[in-house]
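[Meeting: bench + compute handoff]

Bench side (C.D.) handed over the final construct sequence. Compute side (W.E.) agreed to return the predicted structure before the next meeting so the bench team could plan truncations. Sequence as handed over:
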Amino acid sequence: MSDLFSLASRMSDLSAGRGLPPVDKWNPEYCGEIDMVIRRDGLWFHEGSPIGRPQLVRLFSTVLKREGDDYFLVTPVEKMKIKVEDVPFLAVALSVEKAGRPDQNLNFRTNVGDLVTAGADNALSFRPGDAADDELVPYLHVRRGLEARLSRPVYYELAELVEGPAPVIRSAGLSFPFAETSSEA
């Protein structure tokens, strides 16, 4: 676990008080895999144990980078692969501004504290769930190719906002089809 805290210390120096680090501009040498898993339920694990400090999870989330189907924690000098079971984030709260109006906004909060308004840069998409059910699973683009799956309670709130004969969900002046869509992240 000490290597985890050492890594966190180096990452903390990079992001202290400056918002999100520019991980999309960093292309360091690959250093191997780290035994870290982001589970489907949004919990982060290191060496088989949950990371219990929310600030540490938030810190790691700020230096997360996606390349194709792979996920990495990156610094300007290190790049370590981690495992993500589905997507790295979970949308855990939804608030609606200007409900029912054409300029309605859907604002989501993720399990790591990101605040995201569904819109042109943060599209909603729907993909098939488990083979056991026919339910579509909603996803939200958060940042730089990283997505959040909507938690079940948030999904139910979202379903109440579906409009029209060809079901859509409106946010930020856009209509997102409530139907299977491909991920553009």
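W.E. noted at the follow-up: The first helix runs from residue 2 to 15. C.D. will use this when planning the next construct.
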